[in-house]
Structures are given as structure tokens and as C-alpha cells.
Amino acid sequence: MEFLSVGLCHNKPKNRCISRLFALDYICTQGDLALIDFIKEIPCEPRVEVVLIDDAFVERKSMECLFQPNAYLGDEVIDCYINLIKAQKHLKCRSGGRVHIENAFQFNFLKRDGDVEIKTEELYPIEDMTQICSAERRVLLYLDHDMVFIPINIRETHWYLAVIHARNMEIQVLDSLATSQDRKNLTDSIKGLQRQIDMISQRKELKDHRWPNLQVASWPLREIDMGYAKQTDSSSCGLFLLNYIEY
């Protein structure tokens, strides 16, 4: 297994005394271009891990989407950039309150738990305390924030952002295609979260949290009009997702 140690930094403007942030195009330096050329020379083979940001790895083959025009961003790339966003302290509080940004990997667990055909005791057998404790940590983490950002991946063809907005008791949808398409992936993940909340609430009293109520599955979906921030091609949804998370 190969690794490339890279000093990574976040190149977006930092929020200090201003109330609005404006996206700026990042211009690659000569050092950046040299690094890109170096990465391109690495064999595009399985299990060749090139980037590690916190707990998110990116294999060389998963980085190929960054070098090809009109390529769809995979979840490894999305999760690594999300970790960069999460490292920015000024992005942890927004106008709607405290924010937790989830990764694409956890979305799969939420969606799995939303399958009504599978019983809770099958998903979380009482003898498997590791899974139960993991679900409890996730539930308590969400309840300690006013908003939870969840990247939604539709069959590896489209990304959009869902925001659990506790203060408004609604689920907001930010979609760069600006279409009210089937939201089954989202509704399943919210049902999965509700199942986890119900399971944990049976084990312990959930109090001193920031949510008005715990019936998140009953909160309405609201499609947000993204105005000019919409994609005009078939592949840039991942970039729009990351910008929605960041701004």
C-alpha cells in the first residue's frame, strides 16, 4: 500500500468580522501543478491510497475523476473535502445555529436503517453493543446541533444536500438540478434516523438536547430555490453539493 504525504490547506476565504462570504476561484500554483503531475504518474490500481485527511482515504483510482472533464465525483473525494470543511471553525455555526456536517459514508447506514422490511433487532442485535453504541453516539451528536447536513447520493449518478433543520422542524433539500424528483433516498434515511432515535430513547432518556421534538420523520420536506446556483451540465452536482455545504 502506498501513501503520499501532502500538506493540504483550505483555500476558501475565512470569516472574521464580515457577515458574508464570497466564493473565489482558486488558482493553482506551480507547486500545485507539479503535485498534480506527480499524482497522475501513480499507477491507477486498487488499494493505492494517495490522500488521507482525518479518517478519509482517497485511492489513486478514485482521484481519476479529478483529472477528467465532466467526470462525476465519487464518495471518497466528497468525504475528504467534507473533512476539510469540517476543520474550519467558522463554518460550525451558521445563521440557523450549530451545524454538524455528516459524510457520505454514514448516509448509507441511515438509508439502510430506513428499510421497513428489516427489523430493528436484526440491524442492532442486543449482543452487538458496538453497533448500538455507534448509533447512540450518532443520535446524541445530531441532537446536540441545530442543523445536520447530509450529502445524498442517488445511485452514484447525482448528489444533493439535505439539511435537517431542527429549529424550523423541517428537512431542507438543496438540489443543483432544481427538480422535485423522487426523494426516496432521503425519506429512507430520515426514517432510518427516526429508527435510531427511537431505539436509543428506549435505552436512555434523551434530554437536554437542542431539538424541539424527536419526531424527525414527521417533519416536512422543503425544496429550497437555489436561484442562480444550479448546474447546467450532467456532472457537476458534486461540486455544487460541496459549495452548498460550505456556503
From TrEMBL:
Check the record and name the InterPro entries matching this protein: Papain-like_cys_pep_sf (IPR038765), Peptidase_C48_C (IPR003653)
What is a biological process (GO) this protein takes part in?
proteolysis
**What molecular function does GO assign, one term?**
cysteine-type peptidase activity
**Keyword list, A-Z:** Hydrolase, Protease, Thiol protease
Protein family according to the UniProt entry? Belongs to the peptidase C48 family.
Domain annotation Ubiquitin-like protease family profile: ranges:
56-247
Q: Can you name the source organism? A: Zea mays (Maize)
The beginning of the lineage is: Eukaryota, Viridiplantae, Streptophyta, Embryophyta, Tracheophyta
Protein name, as recorded: Putative ubiquitin-like-specific protease 1B
